[in-house]
Amino acid sequence: MERIDKQTALNLLKNADLLEIGELADTIRKNLHSEGIVTFIVDRNINYTNVCINKCKFCAFYRDVESPDAYLLSNDEIFKKIDETIALGGTQILLQGGIHPELGLDYYTDLLKSIKDRYSINIHGFSPPEVNYLAERHVLTIRETLIILRQAGLDSIPGGGAEILSDRVREVLSPKKIKSSQWLNVMEEAHKIGMRTTATMMFGSVEEPEDIIEHLDAIRSLQDRAGGFTAFIPWSFQPKNTELAQNSPPHPPLAKGGRRGGINSKLYPATAVDYLRVLALSRIYLDNVKNIQASWVTQGLKLAQVALRFGANDFGSTMIEENVVKAAGVSFRVSREDIIQAIKSAGFKAAQRDTYYKILRSF
Amino acid sequence: MLEDKVFSGERLTREDAIKLFQSDDLFTIGRLASYVAEKKNGRNAYFIVNRHINPTNICVNRCKFCAFSRSKGEEGAYELTIEEIIKKLKDGHGSRVTGHGFSEVHIVGGLHPDWPFEYYLNMLSAIKKEFPSIAIKAFTAVEIDYMSKISGLNLEDTLKTLKKSGLDLMPGGGAEIFAEGIRSKLCPEKISGDRWLEVMEIAHNAGIKTNATMLYGHLESIEDRVDHLFKLRDLQDRTGGFQAFIPLSYHPKNTEIGGFYSSGVDDLKTIAISRLVLDNFEHIKAYWIMLGEKISQVALLFGADDIDGTIIEEKITHSAGAMTEEGMTKEELAYLIKKAGKTPVERDAFYNELWKG
Ligand code: SF4
Ligand code: SF4
Prior knowledge:
- The structure holds two protein chains of two kinds.
- Chain A contains 14 helices and eleven strands.
- Chain A is α/β, with parallel strands linked by helices.
- In chain A, strand 2, helix 3 and strand 3 form a beta-alpha-beta unit.
- In chain A, helix 4 packs parallel to helix 6, helix 5 packs across helix 6 and helix 11 packs across helix 12.
- In chain B, helix 2 crosses helix 10.
- Chain B is α/β, with parallel strands linked by helices.
- In chain B, about 45% of the residues lie in helices and about 15% in strands.
- At the A-B interface, helix 2, helix 11, helix 12 and helix 14 of A face helix 3, helix 11, helix 13 and helix 15 of B.
């Protein structure tokens, strides 16, 4: 299929029949992954600290340094989590945290080295906001910072902090966070020195359809230049417990138990149909990104299964731990067996992969 | 060609239905089902504001997959008095948006070992007296069969007596899966599939509209599903008394049979194929409490035209590990429907339009 342009993409996003866009994405997925395999990774999300100076409005996770439930994990706590991860067949840790004002590059390099001394596990860590912060703090270039981190043991970089790569939206959501160009720059530098990264997109907050297209286009252009994205992961904003939600009048009114947080009509969470539409469009637009992840953590297993027919070919992580999403009022207790079963019953072969999408074990 | 058949309104055969279930072509199946749904109901997607009452969870049957029932005296067993039922209904009366209160009471429960037939009659007439304009949809075929036993009346007289006391419609529960082999593993204590169909036929002939269900995703084969659908279609040809068909996905948690959740893909396919096979049913319901709001919403694009109600209490599914929250407001339901590109229509128990969004 020929590459589609922004205008066509916008038109698809706004007007296409869901089944039509889904079928198109499904066909593309089938061509790219003709073996009918859906992969997943066994890893653990280790949020080393919840202290963050950025205070993004959609984030339910961050705390001030003085907050009573602020934390910084000790190395021993981190090692214990890694031990457990390995015992469960894990091959990767996702090491991410807030922007802690008291932590400098030494903390990071020491931590990385001490992990690599003990374990041969892939460290997928530090999204662009963290990398950018370290570069600024130590007056280094992004490239220098990345090289230092890589030498200390960092293997690959998660695509978090992208939200929507449109500064208009970032101004509302996360004014203190790095701008789009900075996010893209960290990724480009990482790709150039041979590191692999993922890319994410958080939609369903205050963006317009045009912003989603901007985002997809930025990812596609960078991938054309640098080529280091392994996967794209769209997920929808989870409004509960966030500043953005709390500052808005509750509309529509809450169901019993306050399930929706408090939200205005703009901030009503993306529905299943919206999710499938954006997912399918991502598969269609990003012709140079091989893998698209379904987000069962935000969408639930059943919709994630449907997502496998709307362009996704990967089930993401088994999420031994997922603090950030849990804090926003969504949590699913799901075992690796549940994931394998879910993939199979959706009509696919299930396989565990590593960070670089190499298949380790088929089920 | 199957497509041609659907477009020309020709009936599907058993073989067609089996082929559809075997097919991997989710999108064509969905599109065909949507076509049929739209022919029958336009862009409308219905919901109802109703209240669920489960008068007791004490049940002589103790079906294997039922996580709701208890034996008498067991911990967690309960029974509601008629006063308690009325109070529950009064507490939930009134609605902020359209000015309508709830329009239907849905009553199902266990088969209580000691309650006399009169208890049910008194319950119906007390509710009718308090809420004369509210439709009462009550008692599955399993309960009706049981009432006929305790009252010593035949089915026809049992149903007519209930109708006189205020019964307006019947839900479609208890059908499970008709196939004998599976049914005897799943719920040996329950009435047979033939008996279920007999109760429904007599109800229809007595002027009582009902729904129909199918529990899928446990031990049944494709052929079992297709047989189930065809038995319903045949009965509907004779009586025309079914309003809606509701495929129910099996919930494995807390039940003795165990197993897995059906896949979201299977849920959508089953909805769509039901829409295609049951050409004489007006409505196919994607019951959101069972499927979850996400799959129910997507199901509106796969042939469903109804996602059921805003529900305050729904104990039966919940004790079996349903994945949804206990209630959704009318605004939330309407929003989900609109985002699927459909027109939300609040209906009453008989699909009369009360509000259109
Ligand atoms: S999203 Fe990340 S950068 Fe923003 S406040 Fe939360 S932890 Fe900090
Ligand atoms: S399913 Fe119905 S009949 Fe069977 S035990 Fe549960 S309440 Fe009783």
